[in-house]
Amino acid sequence: MMAARPRRWLRAAAAALLRIPGGCRGCHVGAAASLKREYDAVVIGAGHNGLVAAAYLRKGGLKTAVLERRHLVGGAAVTEEIIPGFRFSRASYLLSLLRPQIYAELELKRHGLKVLPRDPYSYTPLLEDARAGKAPRSLLLGNNMADTQSQIAQFSVKDAQAFPKYEAFMNRLVSAIDPLLDTCPLDVAGFSQGSLLQKLRALRGLRALIRAGFTLGKQLPQYYQVLTAPISKILDLWFESEPLKATLATDAVIGAMAGPHTPGSGYVLLHHVMGELEGRQGAWGYVAGGMGALSQSLANAATALGAEIFTEKAVAQILLSSDGKAQGVCLQDGTEVKSRLVLSNASPQLTFLELTPQEQLPPEFVQRISQFDSRSPVTKINVAVDRLPDFRAAPNARDGCPLPHHQCSIHLNCEDIQLLHQAFEDACQGRPSSRPMIELCIPSALDPSLAPPGCHVVSLFTQYTPYTLAGGKQWDDREREDYADRVFDCVEAYAPGFKASVVGRDVLTPPDLERIFGLPGGNIFHGAMSLDQLYFARPVPSYSSYRSPVEGLYLCGSGAHPGGGVMGAAGRNAARMALEDFKKL
To answer: Which pTM value belongs to this model?
Structure first.
């Protein structure tokens, strides 16, 4: 992290305690309580899925404890004051995918959650026109279709006319797949070879798949292509203007070690448009107080139900009985906590390759988990600035107040698909992208509480950066800062004066994301969202029902169906499955 420039208010802030939601060190989150030696269920990790699972387990009547390694709850959905006076959503930074059932059933608004919707939501400034001596152009997308079409028409009237049809086409696919997120995947092995009870359970997943097929109807082949083809091919079928195609393509590759020409990248696009916010399909917004405020609302809901959450309680091993069943966990300090159920919000690799005794797992299962693709291209840079970025394509107001585009996801180096492809190719050669894809967000444009008056917090979600550099070289401070400087040079080209406005920065490469947040390989989804690692193949075939080869041990994090993003579905689904099994124990 770059040292902050001195400011009077900065010195005062530095003397104050950090304001971190849920950041009570080594404590029980909620009413005072001490860690007991036995519970019905233990949840490993207080990421958002772990908190959701704990809430539903407690709603089902189980005495539940959540054990978190870090000093605060939330996993990657945290707010941290890493630069005095500035509060950052340090890893995840936008909300959309959280399941509406969780909002309602856990009464998250009553527990403090406040969401700030964005409209407009996407802004792509261009460099080419400015370099040619012409007025810079930009593309602004929002909820008003007429305004959005007017923006697109700058580049193509044909594309402007096609855009509403494209939106309707994608929304129909979302409506078909959406119910699959809240159900256990079809258990093929159970359906074909299991007991009568297993076959009846498997029928639930089969019915959900059949309903999805009926929803898509005769257009099923076209929708199949969306899920399997490169996003570049899909967008070429609909549009001709490069700025629009590149802007839409960012949602297909964000967080993925994949380029726009990679087969199957269309599904990742779908994954990012299937959410909703305040009842609006596909909308994304900021959380007031940062993403840590969402995690705190989930923790509040869980503790209100009676769950107990403890920070700085790192789990060292999952305990098994003599007959191979889960019977609790052992902490790093040697403390043993007994339980009949263990739900792990950690990644599949950490859960099964490090925490679970290997001799109790089938060799083929271990092999498949060890081969689970968790490559990540992401480097997240959190930046404190003393003024709003001032873009050439949309100059700031004289009073310095945020303009509509400042609340958007601002896409830089996204003028055309080829730029995205080249950035990906650089990383495939072990090099950080020479002109990285950048998604720039300024949450303080809608939530001034995150920064001192007149100042702002800026999130730079960038790719592509390989986990290991060419020649097997590891990231060091020089490599990290050189890459951040390159990113800042790119931002400066679009918004002159940006570098001079920087107060401090926090640079998180893939190894940093892994070390701090437990994201394997730095992957924000706990594993690639590729078709071979989705639905009944997540994390591995025959174990997609949240259960594991160890009776009583469940996976409830993003490495399970339906995958990554701040969605909560894996936590809710896993808890329901565990509750169902608990009744039979």
So the answer is: 0.92
